Structures are given as C-alpha cells and as structure tokens.
Task: structure prediction
Amino acid sequence: MGDPDQATFEEIVAAGVTAVRDPRSHRYPTNRGRAEFREAVAAFYERRFGVAIDPACEVIPAVGAKECLANLCLGFLDASSVAIVPDPGYPPYRVGARLAGADVVDLPLVQERGYAPDFAALAPDVLERARVLFLNHPNNPTGGGRDRGDIHPGGSAGAGVGAVARARQPIFRGHL
Result:
C-alpha cells in the first residue's frame, strides 16, 4: 500500500526474504491481528487521547489508511447516502465512497482562509442524506492546518452527519 518513490532499505528486503522462507509464514493470517497488538493500540489511545476502547472489538488492524477508508465507506454508505469529501482532498475518500455506491459531494476548502472548510456551501438536502464527512488537518494535499473550532461544524450544517474519519486516525462517532 502507498506509493513509495525510493528503494526499500536492503535490511528490510533481507528480513522479508527470511520471513517468506519461514514455514510459519505459509498460511493465511488472521484478519483480527494479534491480541498483544490490539491491546497495545487500545493502551496508546487511552494514554494519548484519553479514550478507552475495547481491543477485542474496537481495534481493527489494517494495511493502511486506504484500506481503512474503503472499509469505513462500505460499512456506512450505500446508494441512498452521501459522503462529503474535502476539495481538494485525499483521493481515497472519493474512491471509497464511490465503491460503496454513495453520491460524493465536495466540501470546498477555501484557499483564502487557509483551506478552511466552507460548511455553508453544503445544501440541506445533501446533509439529510450524508452519513460520512471526511475532514483532516493538516489537509492532504494542501498542508493547510486549522484550529479545532475552524474544522468542527458545531451547530452548523454538518452537525447531523453520522461518522467522521481523520486520515491515519479513524474516529467513529454517532454525531459530530
């Protein structure tokens, strides 16, 4: 996953070759990940964010952000729903929503305001069907950063959207 633009370090290639030759590697992996890993993730979230999560059912290891975003879209979206994606934004937001059959609506990021989202640009009928709103700052690809108050729609148009995902740090909540 990802789009590397440099050769992999020789030590990593050698470790990969060794792992491939190990007979214990010749079977399908678990899609749940190791319990120790899930427990470490849960402990990290508790320390870093003050959020308690259950490692048995709330930690899902993945290959990277693209896989997580695709699964998020498949879990929350269908042909009757809308995904609101930042424009400009990370292309997998749009691709994942389309794979799930949802309509994709752009949330303009206003360059003159440091790429702040323009929530007023979202039509009320779009918000009624919206199930996912993607935001991340600093925003990929602009690099524009925001204060928390600038990216949270608060009592505005986006308040009823059912899930928020931040690239590389997915967060799932009932409401914003």
